Task: inverse folding
């Protein structure tokens, strides 16, 4: 019996040892595949708890650091409002913070707290950060905002009437609200009416000019055939019709490439040149030159045709004509703008296909060489005799643009050197007066630089 119990005990011990040995072998195999650093169970629980707190931590739930004007130690886990001065105390090794002070020991930061919300507000600042705006928006009471909207809506309803009621009143009074295009249609019909008087035609053109400043309106005028009627009116026998037709045409052409092309195909350029070349009142030539300039600007094909049709000679005659002094500066400004237009296009660092095509078109416009051939080097400086600073400015910049080609002509012009020196002395005094008044880069200083540039290039 005792022997049986002894055998049973030995059998249990053998099984236990075998199980232990098998477990050790498996453990070694697992360690060889993945190393696991075992920690006490209590530490694992603590680590998990801390990780959970960090993931779900809301800054509003953190312990708040209340700043003062003195350095205070920042405890671990405390929320620090933005805008404070923070330092590391090298003696204690701890972080400290306080309000930022100005030279008088004052600061514009104020600590605020409302419920669970807290932060810093800069009371001296006239601007707000994105965070300050977000906090302010959170504090807006929605109920109050709705009340304001409702009260404002009631006020608007009492002050203004619905558009539907207004339309009904207009219909009752036989008043019809028309669109711009409907008005343009009526004005064109009025102008084209064979029974219309001269006064009616002039009034129609005068009112039409007001509407065609708009790009869409000008294109609509073209679409309904009104532009052709206006161009044909340039040949009218009545000066008032010619003048107002040129005015409408110039306004419709301004900055409107589609209308420029249509007008070019309709022969507007030739008709305008005739008005400028023939004996006409100054008022007609003034409006014709306006339309002529609107046609040529930013339209290289029109500029090519302008040169082919002898337009530069026409402008030269107009520049030298008697009783046309008021148009001289306009002519010179147009020529300067066209030369600069080509220069800027050629100097632009744009390698797109569209820009290269534009450069090719401007290469066909040989305006500056044509100006040199027709003695514009001698014509432009004549306007320096003007007493108007604006005129002098435009003359000086045009001379600067042409000086590389006109240097010998400028040097040979009698009295030009003394005139430039006189202008330099005048603008030195005016520029000095500007600087005494606090204008470091004033208008007259720019004119002084322009005069000096020409004088230096002619030396």
Result:
């Amino acid at each position: 019996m005792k022997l049986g119990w002894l055998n049973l005990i030995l059998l249990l011990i053998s099984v236990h040892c075998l199980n232990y040995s098998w477990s050790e072998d498996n453990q070694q195999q697992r360690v060889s595949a993945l190393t696991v650093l075992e920690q006490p169970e209590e530490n694992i629980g603590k680590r998990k708890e801390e990780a959970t707190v960090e993931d779900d931590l809301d800054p509003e739930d953190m312990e708040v650091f209340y700043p003062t004007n003195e350095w205070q130690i920042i405890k671990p886990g405390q929320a620090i409002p933005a805008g404070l001065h923070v330092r590391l105390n090298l003696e204690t090794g701890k972080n400290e913070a306080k309000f930022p002070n100005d030279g008088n020991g004052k600061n514009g930061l104020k600590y605020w707290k409302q419920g669970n919300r807290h932060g810093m507000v800069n009371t001296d600042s006239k601007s707000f950060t994105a965070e300050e705006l977000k906090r302010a928006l959170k504090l807006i009471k929605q109920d109050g905002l709705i009340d304001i909207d409702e009260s404002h809506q009631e006020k608007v309803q009492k002050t203004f009437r619905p558009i539907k009621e207004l339309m009904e009143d207009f219909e009752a009074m036989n008043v019809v609200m028309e669109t711009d295009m409907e008005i343009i249609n009526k004005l064109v019909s009025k102008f084209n009416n064979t029974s219309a008087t001269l006064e009616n035609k002039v009034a129609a053109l005068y009112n039409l000019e007001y509407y065609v400043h708009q790009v869409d309106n000008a294109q609509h005028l073209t679409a309904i055939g009104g532009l052709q009627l206006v161009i044909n009116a340039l040949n009218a026998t009545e000066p008032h019709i010619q003048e107002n037709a040129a005015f409408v045409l110039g306004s419709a052409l301004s900055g409107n490439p589609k209308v420029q092309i249509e007008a070019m195909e309709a022969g507007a350029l030739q008709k305008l040149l005739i008005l400028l070349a023939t004996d006409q009142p100054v008022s007609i030539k003034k409006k014709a030159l306006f339309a002529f300039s609107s046609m040529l600007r930013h339209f290289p094909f029109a500029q090519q045709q302008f040169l082919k049709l002898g337009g530069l000679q026409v402008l030269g005659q107009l520049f030298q004509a008697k009783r046309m002094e008021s148009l001289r500066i306009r002519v010179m400004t147009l020529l300067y703008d066209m030369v600069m237009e080509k220069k800027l296009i050629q100097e632009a660092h744009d390698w797109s296909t569209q820009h290269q095509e534009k450069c090719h078109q401007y290469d066909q416009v040989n305006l500056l060489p044509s100006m040199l051939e027709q003695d514009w080097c001698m014509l432009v400086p004549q306007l320096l005799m003007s007493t108007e600073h604006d005129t002098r400015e435009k003359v000086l910049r045009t001379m600067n643009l042409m000086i590389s080609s006109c240097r010998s002509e400028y040097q040979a012009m009698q009295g030009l050197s003394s005139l430039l020196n006189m202008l330099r002395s005048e603008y030195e005094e005016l520029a000095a007066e500007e600087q005494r008044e606090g204008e470091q880069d004033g208008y007259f200083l720019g004119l002084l630089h322009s005069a000096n540039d020409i004088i230096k290039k002619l030396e």
